[in-house]
Structure formats: C-alpha cells, structure tokens
Amino acid sequence: MPGYTLVDAPWWPFLFMVLAGALPTHIWRWLGVAFGTRLSEDSEIMRWVRAVATALVAAVVCRLVFYPQGYLAELPLAFRLGAFLGGFAVFLAAGRRPLPGIIAGELLLIVAMTFGMPGA
C-alpha cells in the first residue's frame, strides 16, 4: 500500500527514536520543570523521589558488578568488586563527590583488565 512506504524511508528509525524514546522522556522533564518549583525540597514526595532514584542507581551498579555483560563478564568477580569498593572509597574520601569515585573505579577496572587478566 502506498501509505506505508514512509516506514521504509531511511530516516524512519531516527524519527521513531525521537517519537518513542526522546519525546516521552522530555515530557516528564518538562513536567518536572513546570511543577518542580512548587515542591519543597524537604517534602515527603521529594524524599521519596530521591530514595527511588538512589535505589535505581544502586540496582544498576549491582547489576554491573554481579551480572555484567560483554567483556566485563570475563573479568573475575573479585576484580569487579575491588574496582567498586575502590571507587566507593574515593567517593567518600573526596567528600561524597561522584565524579572522582567514578573515575577511580574506571581506572581500577582498566588496570585489572590490562594487567590482571591471564592472556592480556
């Protein structure tokens, strides 16, 4: 049918990503900006939002450490845990700033993958 030829267009996947991926995300961001100024930072809802966000980050980190995919899965669990704990120690030592902890964890993983793996 002539009406469905647009789906075969080379630009269609990009339009689909915007419509199905970016637009729903941006709608929530716009709503957050619109209504976020009216919420107190110490309100019950904001504490709940922070708790959920923290739980999601913790879940992603645990998944990366305990159930990784790709090349990271070839690295022994002890190395992944060591990189996590080292990055967390730097995070705490740097006054709870995330970026130094992330960089330290990444560097520890790179060192482990480069020098700690047999056959590397």
TrEMBL record:
Organism: Methylobrevis pamukkalensis
This protein's record includes keyword Membrane: yes
Keywords: Membrane, Transmembrane, Transmembrane helix
Bilayer-crossing regions: 12-36, 48-66, 78-95, 102-119
Entry keyword Kinase: no
Pfam family, one: AzlD
Protein's name according to its UniProt entry: Branched-chain amino acid transport protein (AzlD)
